[in-house]
Design a protein that fits this description.
homodimer; about 290 residues; alpha+beta; 60s Ribosomal Protein L30, Chain: A; 2 domains; 7-stranded mixed beta sheet; 5-stranded mixed beta sheet; 8 helices; 12 strands; about 30% helix; about 25% strand
Chain lengths: ~290, ~290
C-alpha cells in the first residue's frame, strides 16, 4: 500500500498501533514539568516557492507556525532551533531568512546549515507551559470558540498563484500567518481543549472530537471569515488550512468565551457536524497524502 | 557574497555578530534546569542516497546522530520528534524508517509527515542533563581523549560509492554510526569540554580551541583509526567526518582518562596543531559550504 492510499492520519494510526510512535498528531510534545517542544518544517515546492516568497517572509512564517504550536499548548516560547538546507545562495538571503525568524522576538539558539538542492527550513520551538489543555478534555455542553477569521491564507495563496491583484490583505495572511500567544494566555488556563487551525476547521475539529470522544457541532454561519475569500475560489472555507487561529472548547460557564467568537458546541456522540441553517453539510478535511 | 565563499562557520559567526542567532554551532541548546534540545536533519542526495541506504538504516542513523548530540551534552534521552518529508512511497518503507528510529529504545513522541519530492528526516532529540560540559572549559594542561576509532564512516561511504567488496565493517560504521551514551555518562560529570566528532577531529577540535581560547595539540599517531581505511582512500583520517565518537578535554589528574585513548593535550595559545613524530602537519576540516 502507498502512503497516498493510507493518508497522513492513517499513517499516524498505523505507527501508534505498532508502538512505533505516539502523540505525533499533537501540536507539540510535553516533557517533565511542562516543558514543550514542537517541530515543523517548511519545504520548497511543497509549502512555498521562492518565486513568490521573500527570504524574510519565509523565515517569519517558519517561526510563526511553530510559535502557533506553542500557543496551542499554552506555552511561553523560550527559543528556536533552526535546521536549514539551502543551495549556494547569497549570504544576504540567509541573513534575511534569520531576520524573519527572529522578528517575533524569540532567539535562535541552535541548529545547523547544510547545502542541498532545495530549501528546507525545519524549526524546533521550545517553551514552558503551566497548563497544557490538550485535545482530549472537551465535554458535551462545551462551547467552541475561534480567535479570528478563517480562509484568508488559502485564498491569499490562490491569489498569488493566479497573479490576481488587489488581494494584498489575503496574501499577507498567507505570507505572515499569526501566532496567537496573547489569546492562548487567556484560553489555556481553563480551556477543555485547544489547538491551532492548520488543516482547516473541519479537519482540525475532528481531532478534538476523536480525542475527546464527543461530537463537535459547528455553525458555519457563525464562523468569522476573512473578507472576499469567495472572490478568489469556491472551496468551502472550512476546508481551507494554514490560518493558525486557535480553536478552543470552553465550559459553558467559562467567562473567557466572551472575548472570542462562539462557533458551535460539543455534544454527546462522535465526529464533526457542520451545520448551516440547521442543514447538515458534508465533511471534508485536508490530508497531506490522501488524494 | 555566496554561502560557499563564506563557509558554514563564517555564516555562524556572521549570524552571531548581528545578533540573529547564538549557539548554533553547539551540539544542542540548553533550557531551564538542564533541559537539552538538539536537531539534525538528514537530506536525500546530501547525507544519503536511497539506492545505497535501507529505510531502516536511514531511521537508525537519523536517531543515532541526534542521540550522539545528547551524549555530547551529557544528557539522558527523553524522546524524539520526527519531521519527515517523503514522496508517495510504500507504507512499509515508512514503517521501516520508524523501526530504525526507535531501535535505540527511545520513543518518537511527536512530529509530522509531509509529501515532497525528496526525503528529509529532521529529528529533534530531547534530554535532561545534570551537567553540560560544553566546549569552553578546556584548560592548558588538560588531556584530550577520544572514545573510539576514527575514519571508518567516511571510508565506508567511499567503499559503498565505489562498489568495493570486503569492507562490510566500514560500511556498517557509515550506515549505523554509534552514539556514545555510555561513555558520556562517565565523561560528562568531570570533562572540561566534550563534543561528538561529526566533521573530522581537526575541524571539531578547532571548535574547542576557539571557545576555550587555548591550543589543542593532537598526536595523530596516538589517534585510534578504523582498520583498513587507507585501502579505500588517501584522505588524512583527521579530515574524515561522521564518526560520532566523543572528544573530551579532561583535567590531567582526572582518573576517567584511563578508560579512553589519550590523543593529545591542551596548551596555552590558540588553534589546533596536528603533530606526527614531532612534525607539524597542515590543518584541514570539513565545512558544508566552503569548497
Amino acid at each position: 500500500m502507498r502512503l497516498s492510499e493510507l493518508g497522513e492520519f492513517g499513517l499516524l494510526r498505523e505507527l501508534e498501533r505498532r508502538g512505533l510512535a505516539h502523540g505525533i498528531g499533537d501540536d507539540a510534545a510535553v516533557f517533565g514539568d511542562g516543558f514543550v517542544v514542537t517541530q515543523d518544517a517548511l519545504a520548497e515546492g511543497v509549502h512555498f516557492r521562492l518565486e513568490t516568497t521573500s527570504w524574510r517572509d519565509l523565515g517569519y512564517k517558519a517561526a510563526a507556525v511553530n510559535l502557533s504550536d506553542l500557543a496551542a499548548m499554552g506555552a511561553e516560547p523560550a527559543g528556536l532551533l533552526v535546521s536549514l538546507t539551502v543551495p549556494d545562495v547569497r549570504v544576504e538571503d540567509v541573513l534575511d531568512l534569520y531576520r524573519g525568524l527572529t522578528e517575533p522576538g524569540f532567539a535562535v539558539v541552535g541548529g545547523d546549515t547544510t547545502q542541498a538542492e532545495r530549501v528546507t527550513v525545519a524549526v524546533t520551538a521550545v517553551g514552558e507551559s503551566a497548563r497544557v489543555p490538550g485535545r482530549a478534555g472537551a465535554k458535551p455542553g462545551d462551547f467552541l470558540v475561534v480567535t479570528g477569521p478563517l480562509g484568508g491564507s488559502a485564498a491569499g495563496l490562490r491569489a498569488l498563484e493566479q497573479g490576481l491583484d488587489g488581494f494584498d490583505d489575503l496574501v499577507e495572511r498567507h505570507r505572515r500567518p499569526p501566532y496567537r500567544l496573547d489569546a492562548a494566555r487567556r484560553l489555556a488556563p481553563t480551556a477543555h481543549a485547544l489547538l491551532d487551525l492548520s488543516d482547516g476547521i473541519a479537519s482540525d475539529a475532528e481531532r478534538i472530537a476523536e480525542r475527546s470522544s464527543c461530537r463537535l457541532v459547528i455553525d458555519v454561519d457563525a464562523v468569522p471569515r476573512a473578507p472576499r475569500i469567495e472572490e478568489v475560489g469556491d472551496d468551502p472555507f472550512w476546508t481551507l488550512g494554514e490560518d493558525y487561529e486557535l480553536l478552543a472548547a470552553l465550559a459553558p460557564d467559562d467567562p473567557v468565551q466572551e472575548d472570542f467568537t462562539v462557533v458551535g458546541r460539543c455534544e454527546a456522540g462522535e465526529g464533526v457536524e457542520l451545520r448551516r441553517d440547521g442543514e447538515l453539510l458534508e465533511l471534508a478535511g485536508w490530508d497531506h497524502f490522501r488524494v
